[in-house]
Design a protein that fits this description.
alpha+beta, four-stranded antiparallel beta sheet, 24% strand, Curli production assembly/transport component CsgF, T8SS_CsgF, signal
Length: 119
């Protein structure tokens, strides 16, 4: 006589981790809850404005990346776009990037390594 062994299905409780996407899909298909705060519909003009803003920010990001890491990298620079100022200083080992919110004065500093030491 074979012994009966319980094997859970849900990966949260020790089941096979490959079941997670399937179980999430089933749960989302059965979920009929609608957030009352999201009753506003998006107009075509709002959608267009968001997509345009996304494209402009993407183009700006590409220009900044090219200025820092491109064919002719700059030692330092400052770019102002909308309510933000982005400044960078390049050294041999890293790039110091500072993103300043001109309205609130909040500054986000990012250090990007540029030089990898080989042992």
């Amino acid at each position: 006589m074979a012994e009966i062994v319980y094997q859970p299905v849900n990966p949260s409780f020790g089941g096979n981790p490959f079941n997670s996407s399937h179980l999430l899909g089933i749960a989302n298909a059965q979920n009929d809850y609608k957030d009352p705060a999201s009753t506003a519909t998006t107009s075509d003009a709002d959608l267009f404005a968001r997509q345009l803003q996304s494209r402009l920010l993407s183009a700006l990001s590409s220009q900044i990346t090219d200025a820092i890491f491109g064919a002719n990298p700059q030692e330092r620079g400052t770019i102002t776009f909308g309510g933000q100022t982005i400044s960078f200083v390049r050294s041999l080992e890293s790039v110091q990037l500072a993103i300043t919110n001109n309205t609130s004065g909040e500054v986000t500093n990012i250090e990007i390594p540029t030089f990898v030491k080989v042992n």
